[in-house]
């Protein structure tokens, strides 16, 4: 989609004039059904129990590296699909301005799916067998959304102990044991105290909102951001919360951490990230003006270790941290920090924003990437790119759209692999050095409304597969692609829908290598 502040530009395929019905027909009614559709039955003899790596939630892990720990299957068939929204609400222009949460996938290949269960923004969790799509159990959440424009994401998180954590109303975190089983104990944890919540449930439900994905460390401690209305009974101010593995809760106001009264909450949809040693928590905070800070906190105490005001590399003025974005910090294996923002002035950088880059202490601002809007960078081991001659041990992959009718954008929309330690002149602002493009691939479906342009890539976190040296990328043209870095080609593709302008979506990898992608309010399971 174009940036939050940009006027939606007419760049759809001609067939999308009737997309709301056409896509649903193409998907066999996905978007309204209550259980998975098994498109192709699993092969005979394929019932061996799976034991593989878990995909813990948004970005796969607490650093948001989004790296597969098992080789992905070929994009040969849609094994099954299931609705993630029972009543999708399309804009007048035919866009779907909803950020759908990432599935979480257990080591036993149970796919845990957050589902919007009606026109109202109420949610449930569905557990599906990853091989067949068969529904194992469902559980309604009482979660209430904070005020918003684009619908925020509702995400699930698996802990190292295989508990499922998900947001509830009033700032509660719900924990379900044994997500692979049909039944599991359920309990709630309240970061400001169970007694306070029980004393005024209705008031807290209406005034305190978890507004980021939950991040879990290897010890079972949970971290998340929240917003709070002044009417809340406990006098909470929006900020960052921690619930320890022992159930003890703590929180610190965003304004206190940033030392700025204009900041009032964690940035919407922006998942906290942890350093590789688990000792530092990185979070983004903002306020009504969209000015924002990136904070480094002590992961045990939530006390501030460092902060940095997020600046536009071109204007040197505050960048915009938009609540319509899902950009979250990504932490490199060496501890360096990457975070996407919008440019100071609408469309000044063609709506691309910037991928800001800092050392682990947030003391040094380093070379930025040329695209940051609504994107969480994924980590690409340098060994995935044959012939790479640079010095970096890892690279980054990001969406690289150049939005038509946004500034000087030409709609030549790409995905790029970038070197964080080498530079080149920026495409839009040549005076600004940006991360060097190692590889880039342009979309393939022409944009009929912008000559020479192609349909946008649709990624808010891309799954990286070191085993096949490829990246799994979703497009608004309705296809899922495998980008083979060995040949720099889109070596495999599979049609999911007839195409849709939508908020950016995650890809994920199952314990058996199945690839999961969301398109038009439907989760697709793709494999051999």
Model regions low in confidence, pLDDT < 50 over at least 5 residues: 5-34
Structural category is mainly beta
Q: What overall form do the CA principal axes indicate?
A: globular
CATH class wording: Mainly Beta
CATH superfamily: YVTN repeat-like/Quinoprotein amine dehydrogenase
DSSP strand count: 33
Number of alpha- plus pi-helical segments: 4
Mean of pLDDT: 92
- Helix share, percent: under 10%
CATH fold name, please?
A: Methylamine Dehydrogenase, Chain H
Largest sheet: 5 strands, antiparallel
Number of domains: 1
CATH architecture: 7 Propeller
InterPro entries: Quinoprotein_ADH-like_sf
Keywords: Signal
Organism: Massilia aerilata
Signal peptide: 1-28
Explain what you see.
There is one protein chain. This protein is mostly beta strands and 528 residues long. It has a single domain, classed as YVTN repeat-like/Quinoprotein amine dehydrogenase (Methylamine Dehydrogenase, Chain H, 7 Propeller), CATH 2.130.10. It is 5% helix and 32% strand. It has four helices and 33 strands. Strands 10, 11, 12, 13 and 14 form a five-stranded antiparallel beta sheet that branches. The longest helix has 8 residues.
């Amino acid at each position: 989609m174009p940036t939050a502040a940009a006027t939606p530009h007419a760049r759809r395929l001609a067939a999308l004039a009737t997309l709301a019905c056409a896509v649903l027909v193409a998907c066999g009614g996905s978007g309204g059904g209550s259980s998975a559709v098994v498109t192709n039955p699993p092969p005979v003899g394929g019932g061996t129990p799976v034991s593989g790596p878990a995909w813990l939630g948004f970005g796969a892990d607490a650093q948001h590296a989004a790296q597969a720990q098992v080789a992905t299957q070929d994009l040969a068939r849609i094994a099954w699909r299931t609705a993630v929204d029972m009543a999708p609400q399309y804009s007048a222009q035919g866009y779907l301005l909803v950020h759908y949460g990432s599935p979480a996938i257990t080591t036993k290949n149970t796919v845990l799916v957050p589902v919007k269960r009606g026109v109202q923004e109420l949610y449930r969790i569905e557990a599906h067998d990853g091989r067949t799509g068969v529904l194992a159990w469902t559980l309604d959440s009482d979660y209430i959304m904070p005020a918003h424009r684009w619908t925020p994401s509702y995400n699930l998180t698996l802990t190292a102990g295989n508990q499922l954590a998900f947001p509830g109303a009033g700032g509660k975190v719900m924990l379900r044991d044994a997500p692979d089983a049909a039944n599991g104990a359920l309990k709630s944890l309240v970061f400001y105290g169970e007694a306070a919540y029980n004393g005024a449930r209705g008031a807290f439900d209406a005034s305190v909102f978890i507004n980021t994905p939950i991040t879990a460390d290897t010890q079972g401690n949970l971290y998340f951001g929240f917003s709070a209305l002044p009417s809340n009974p406990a006098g909470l101010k929006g900020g960052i919360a921690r619930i320890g593995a022992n159930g003890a809760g703590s929180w610190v106001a965003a304004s206190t951490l940033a030392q700025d009264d204009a900041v009032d909450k964690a940035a919407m949809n922006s998942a906290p990230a942890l350093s590789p040693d688990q000792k530092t928590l990185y979070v983004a905070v903002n306020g009504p003006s969209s000015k924002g800070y990136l904070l480094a906190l002590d992961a045990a105490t939530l006390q501030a270790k460092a902060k940095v005001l997020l600046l536009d590399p071109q204007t040197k003025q505050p960048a915009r941290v938009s609540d319509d974005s899902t950009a979250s910090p990504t932490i490199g294996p060496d501890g360096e920090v990457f975070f996407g923002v919008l440019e100071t002035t609408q469309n000044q950088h063609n709506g691309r924003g910037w991928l800001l880059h800092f050392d682990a202490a947030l003391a040094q601002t380093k070379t930025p990437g040329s695209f940051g809007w609504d994107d969480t960078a994924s980590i690409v081991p340098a060994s995935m790119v044959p012939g790479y001659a640079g010095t970096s041990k890892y690279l980054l992959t990001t969406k690289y759209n150049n939005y038509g009718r946004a500034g000087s954008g030409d709609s030549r929309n790409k995905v790029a692999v970038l070197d964080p330690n080498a530079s080149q002149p920026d495409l839009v602002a040549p005076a600004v050095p940006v991360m060097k493009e190692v590889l880039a691939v342009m979309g393939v479906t022409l944009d009929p409304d912008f000559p020479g342009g192609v349909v946008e890539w649709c990624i808010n976190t891309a799954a990286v597969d070191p085993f096949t040296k490829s990246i799994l990328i979703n497009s608004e043209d309705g296809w899922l692609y495998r980008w083979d870095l060995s040949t720099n080609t889109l070596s495999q593709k599979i049609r999911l829908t007839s195409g849709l302008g939508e908020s950016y979506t995650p890809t994920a990898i199952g314990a058996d290598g199945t690839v999961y992608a969301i398109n038009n309010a439907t989760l697709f399971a793709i494999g051999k």
